[in-house]
Amino acid sequence: MWLFKYLFTNLYRAVQTPNGRQLLWLFFRYAGRPRHQTGSISFNNYRFQVPDALSFVWQFKEIFADESYRFNTTATHPVILDCGANIGTSLAYFRQTYPAARIIAFEADPAIGEVLAKNLRDNNIPDIEIVNKAVWIDEQGLDFGTGDADAASMFSDTGRRRVPSVRLRDYLLREPRIDMLKIDIEGAETAVLTDCRDALAHVQNLFVEFHAYIGHPQTLGEVIQVLEAAGFRYYMDSNQGRTRPLVNHRYRGNDLMDLQLNIFAYRP
């Protein structure tokens, strides 16, 4: 029911833009498809291989229809670090919107990393440095579990293995200015941001997808403390729309998470 409620309550807004109309078409075409089956989806001028159609549609909504990652910059060649690039939907948006940007993309899951590289190659999305390693607090590797669609994380118990890692702080300190830092790393964000607390002064815009996993501490306060100490203003949004939250403790029935927030931080 939440899907149809979303469609009807947002119909007028959606039909006002080409990407909004494309989103409605994607919902009607793919919302009823079986979950977690690999296939191809055409959108705008791209054709992407996707591991799960409905997850991709939600990505398209956030990235292309809502333009959640749009930022202002005066830089001729803005620098974008995309931590948790997944299958490359955000990279297609960044390259289309900021054609002269220098982009570094990080993806921890080896299988998703292969899909990411294929999507960029097949769609002629050029000049993106791909780092197929987990963003973390050191270079010692990270125990990482796989999952359906975009559910892989350090908290997943399925198919756990150790994957190579990079220390994000090192990448931040190499750049005199970072125009956009996107962090969507499925639960590792609190540790990584805490490790980077003294390396954020030259970051102009920051997106964090915050996750709270059931059975683990909720660390939103730590993330906010880092952002405030670094001088950011911030805005938080949730697409949960949870009713009776003191009774209904799950994130859309998710067995792993009980909270997911989008945090947008920017320089005043």
Task: Spell out the blueprint of helices and strands.
Blueprint: H1 2-9, H2 11-14, H3 18-30, E1 39-43, E2 46-50, H4 53-65, E3 79-83, H5 89-97, E4 102-106, H6 110-122, E5 128-131, E6 134-136, E7 142-144, E8 161-163, E9 165-167, H7 168-174, E10 180-183, H8 189-195, E11 205-213, H9 220-229, E12 233-237, E13 257-266
Parallel strand pairs: 3-4, 3-10, 4-5, 6-9, 10-11
Antiparallel strand pairs: 1-2, 7-8, 11-13, 12-13
Walkthrough of the structure:
With 268 residues, the chain is an alpha/beta fold. Helices cover 31% and strands 24% of the residues. The chain contains nine helices and 13 strands. It has helices at residues 2-9, 11-14, 18-30, 53-65, 89-97, 110-122, 168-174, 189-195, 220-229; strands spanning 39-43, 46-50, 79-83, 102-106, 128-131, 134-136, 142-144, 161-163, 165-167, 180-183, 205-213, 233-237, 257-266. The strands form four sheets. It has a seven-stranded mixed beta sheet. α8 (189-195) links the parallel β10 (180-183) and β11. α3 packs antiparallel against α4 and α8 runs parallel beside α9. The longest helix has 13 residues, at 18-30. It is globular. The termini are far apart. The model has no long low-confidence stretch (mean pLDDT 89).
Described by strand count, sense and barrel closure, the largest sheet is: 7 strands, mixed
Strand order of the largest sheet: 5-4-3-10-11-13-12
Q: Classify the secondary structure makeup into a structural class.
A: alpha/beta
The count of DSSP E runs of length 2 or more, i.e. the number of strands, is 13
The percentage of residues in β strands lies in 15-25%
Uncertain spans, ≥5 residues at pLDDT below 50? none
Q: Determine the mean pLDDT.
A: 89
How helical, in percent, are the residues?
A: 25-40%
In N-to-C order, the SSE pattern is: HHHEEHEHEHEEEEEHEHEHEE
Number of helical regions: 9
Radius of gyration: 18 Å
Distance between the termini: 39 Å
